[in-house]
Amino acid sequence: MIQLTDHSGKAWPLAFDWEDEVSGESIRVEVDNVKPPIPYAEQKSGTVGDRYECEINGRREYLYYSVLQPRKWFILKPVSEEVYKAYYRLPGEATGKRKTGRA
């Protein structure tokens, strides 16, 4: 991540290198129109930090900057509902195993 950090310590994303999943080639991605960050707790990853709404390649995207050590930038990768449900199970959700009723 290439970032600008202001005198108060807030970071502003400018660009980042992204590895193409098909070719494995590194691509420089510019970050445009960054709005001021808001404090945010990302439920899927369990990270607490700042969420930045910005424009990347003409699309609105959200970048996250963790306040936990080590501080890291990340972007959520879209996944299908099937993959999401297979990976993220809430307590009490069915796992496909039958209960036997034994104590």
> Domains counted in the coordinates: how many?
1
* Shape category: globular
Structural Rg: 18 Å
What is the structural class? mainly beta
Number of helices: 1
Let me know the largest β-sheet.
7 strands, antiparallel
Percentage beta strand: 35-45%
Total DSSP E strands: 7
Distance between the termini: 53 Å
Q: What's the SSE pattern?
A: EEEEEEEH
Helix fraction by DSSP (H/I, runs of at least 4): under 10%
Low-confidence stretches: none
* Mean pLDDT across every amino acid position: 82
Q: What does this protein look like?
A:
The protein has 103 residues and is mostly beta strands. The chain has one domain. It has one helix and seven strands; from the N terminus they run E-E-E-E-E-E-E-H. Strands 1, 2, 3, 4, 5, 6 and 7 form a seven-stranded antiparallel β-sheet that branches. A hairpin with a 4-residue loop joins strand 4 and strand 5. The termini are far apart. The model has no long low-confidence stretch (mean pLDDT 82).
